[in-house]
# Entry
Amino acid sequence: MQELATNATNVFKDVFGSEPAYVGNAPGRVNLIGEHTDYNDGFVLPAAINFGTVVAATGRDDRTVSVVALDFDNERADFDLDTLADAEASSWRSYVRGVLLALMEQYPDIKGANLSVTGNVPQGAGLSSSASFEIALLKTMASLNELPLSGAEAAKMGQLAENKYAGCNCGIMDQMISACGAKNRALLLDCRSLETKYTSIPEGYSVLITNSNVKRGLVDSEYNTRREQCEAAAAAMGLSSLRDASMEQLLAAKDKMSEKEFQRAHHVLTENERTLTMFDALNAGDMATCSKMMAESHASMRDDFEITVRPIDYLVELLGSLIGDNGGVRMTGGGFGGCVVALVADNKVDEAKTLILENYEKETGIAPSIFVCSAEDGAFTQA
Ligand code: GLA
# Structure
């Protein structure tokens, strides 16, 4: 992040002619387990990672927010807070607009600011580049305006920006972990109560992320369809959310829903159980159980939720053959491409990388990207 901070600061000085008063960051995330459970009021177990978005900023006395986006050829856009609701915005600007509008629903009187923004979360890879952008902006505006904003409140605003202004019906996981992550720890989040519990990434294991680099298409529409199917399954049982359903209830109501709705709900119910089991297993350093939970989670995403693609399944099989029951591997994120996350014993990391580099492109025709990540503090938990 240091290099990003230097770049953001240098561009800030060039454009605005002074040192920034504030430099801060918000991380992206990797989800260890608990996929598509967040918008069903369920459990997730993500970690914030050492890739993120950095903002350099200074407050202004007027109502203009002026933003320079380093990763878009230093494009600059000015947002007038008094007319924002009626303004059009596209590309990265629509996220700035959405975040500011969400923030102003609670704090209508915020002042303007000058900002430069840059990030290194790979976009469209299922590592939450947009949540990291949203939380970085919210943390910046909260700091400059001295707002008493908690991580959870910021997360809800980031989610609102997505749901209401960006057209993606996402849950709360990505924004919560970007705001409330903790160094060397994963976070068990109850997405209904927003209760948080942390557990250490086990000593002697690395978090290895492999980007399949599969170009993702139709992600938002498939995502929103999955959510609708989950909600339809809950409604068929007379419930407002799948969180309240037991497996017995689901089996008893099988005839009241479509085959697909049943499968989606089956994934969510079993995934919630696996997430809680994995949290206990991480606490106990029980890697064999972690391995089993991650393998079952992947199979459930592939067969019940139908969100994996062949190159992702291949990566999971490949890494699974090396890791065995001493770690774990599964797809992470919304699906249809993106990344695979693995817990790998430190002394096997080089072998794992070699295995991927020697086989993945040969099998799929696509070159992979590999990152060994550390778990980091979130924007609202940093000292
Ligand atoms: C995306 C969404 C999250 C969550 C995951 C799937 O990352 O933004 O809210 O639903 O997909 O677990």
